[in-house]
Amino acid sequence: MAKISSTVLRPTEADRPQWPERFARHYRSLGHWRDEVLGELPREGATRHPAAVALVDGDRRWTYRELESEVDILARSLSRLGLRQGDRVVLQLPNIAEFVLGWFALQRLGAVPVHAMPGHRRHEISHLIRLTEAVAYVIPARHARFDHRELAAEMKAEHPSLGQVIVVGDVGARPDFVPFDALHDDTAPAIAELARPAPEDLALLLLSGGTTGTPKLIPRTHQDYAYNARAAANISELTSDSVYLAVLPIAFNFTMSCPGILGTLQAGGTVVLAPNPSPDTVFTLIERERVTITAVTPPLVPYWLKEYTESTPDLSSLRVLQVGAARLPDDIARGIGPTLGCRLQQVFGMAEGLLNLTALDDPEDIVCSTQGRPISPEDEVLVVDDQGNPLPDGETGELLTRGPYTLRGYYRSPEHAVTHFTENGFYRTGDLVKRLPSGHLTVVGRVKDQINRGGEKIDATEVEECLLGYPGIVSAAVVAEDDDELGERSVAFVVCARDAPTARELAAFLRQHGLAAYKAPDRVVAIEQLPLTPLGKVDKRALRSRG
Ligand code: J2J
């Protein structure tokens, strides 16, 4: 295996703004931030409950002792390959054990996983590698009828920083790619002077839903991410008896740490991976593994409820169904408990940080009509009008927040400091909410230029910019419209110099352009002229009402 040369790049102030010392001291003094790093989690589990099952993927299972041993071997092999502390590594894997094993091995080294979604393609991946100067890219050979090796070959040719491509499965015609299985090599030497990362170091980079044309990266530190998972696990009442089923992509912050995989492993429970979210797959796993908690987006709920009523599987082990990432309609919320016989937990989170959960013992009405309240007593929440003035409870305004696990700035993008943060360091979420006196929040809309397609976020500007490359499109605006199944879907209004393309033609064009498939507009409307506001900006509100 060829070595990659990489310099140790400690995260610097220039890469990411940090919490002012006054806040850091405060969060530490309260015990929210601890002297902990994510790579040590498997080792702690192996000490506390070595024989308990930590991870299940199909027929493969790992006890905590085995997880620790596997992570150690992988970390040594990655080190031998040339990976170093501070290196960024784009991780694009579906829900398979290698995601979890590889992720912890990178953490053990102090390397920084960059979470790509399985559906991301050339446009997104290229941006991630360029922005992070990633030294490695971890992929499946094929997934969802897509050959990731071809994309990786392109990326390697395009990006000089990219030294290694690691493939789960067959490397195909690329002997320079490293098979993931080859990393399972116990002869790799112990890592000599492996410096433990500091709790305040960069631990991972998450992708933002984005609203500015190019996806932004969210820096998360060891101490803030560990706290996020622990606080969520407390509210979801996880214990060593908990069995968490990962249905949504692991790369998603929701699945990873809210409380998700990290929260479950911190509590000494078992993580089970679902290869897809179909009721068939999921119900079989819940029965077989006696799953106690799982998490989904709203569009999956009606499918699961319908299938449950028709096939009545044994879901008696299931205590909690978390639903989040998009607004769950209140009437669907009310059907969950009575039908499935478990508690609904609403989840309103964001990769940027702030996480809101309903508690398991909140009154039924709160659970069904709000999206929960902040998980930390140190989460500061403001609801403001469009002048930035704080509003009283019950009034609708934009949600601003800062706290012990909410970012203070994006990774390597100081240009977003002013637009996305207040002078006092509050993050502008772009979400319109109402707050109850109890602190519970209801999400009622958004001011950001984004479409929430059943939980998948689409940055309107990013798609519009790509659409302008289509021959004949003169101008374009992408907005949300209501959809019975997804909650929202995307519609593109296009002004054309010739015949307007169909949605299918545009989807093919965008795919060629390298854009993830879920970003293609569901519907295309040809229009003479885009309506403008008095200030000369495209009037998206007018477009939405035409939809
Ligand atoms: C309405 N809108 C919601 C909800 C998120 C847990 C859960 C979700 C995410 C996530 C996450 C919503 N009702 N219940 O990271 O850890 C919209 C808001 C929010 C944006 C964030 C987690 N839950 N949303 O969805 O970074 O608009 O994170 O600002 O993908 O999703 O999107 P994302």
Can you offer a commentary on this structure?
The chain has 547 residues and is α/β, with parallel strands linked by helices. It has a domain at 450-546: 2-Layer Sandwich (GMP Synthetase, Chain A, domain 3), CATH 3.30.300. It is built from 17 helices and 27 strands. Strands 2-1-13-12-14-15-16-17-18 form a 9-stranded mixed β-sheet, with helices on both faces. It has a 5-stranded parallel β-sheet with strand order 4-3-5-8-9, sandwiched between helices. Strands 19-20-21-22 form a 4-stranded antiparallel β-sheet, with no helix packed on it. Strand 1 (53-57) and strand 2 (60-63) form a beta hairpin. The radius of gyration is 23 Å and the shape is globular. The N and C termini lie far apart (55 Å). Residues 1-11 have low confidence and may be disordered. The structure holds ligand J2J. Ligand J2J binds next to helix 8, strand 16, strand 21 and strand 22.
CATH topology of the domain at 450-546: GMP Synthetase, Chain A, domain 3
From the N-terminal CA to the C-terminal CA, the straight-line distance is 55 Å
CATH class of the domain at 450-546: Alpha Beta
CATH architecture of the domain at 450-546: 2-Layer Sandwich
CA radius of gyration: 23 Å
Q: Order of strands side by side in the largest beta sheet? A: 2-1-13-12-14-15-16-17-18
* Bound ligands, named by name, code or SMILES: ligand J2J
Helix content: 25-40%
- Please report the total strand number as a whole number: 27
Name the CATH homologous superfamily of the domain at 450-546.
ANL, C-terminal domain
User: What is the residue-averaged pLDDT?
Assistant: 95
Low-confidence stretches: 1-11
Pfam families: AMP-binding (PF00501), AMP-binding_C (PF13193)
Keywords: Ligase
Domain AMP-binding enzyme C-terminal: 462-537
InterPro entries: AMP-bd_C, AMP-bd_C_sf, AMP-binding_CS, AMP-dep_synth/lig_dom, ATP-dep_AMP-bd_enzyme
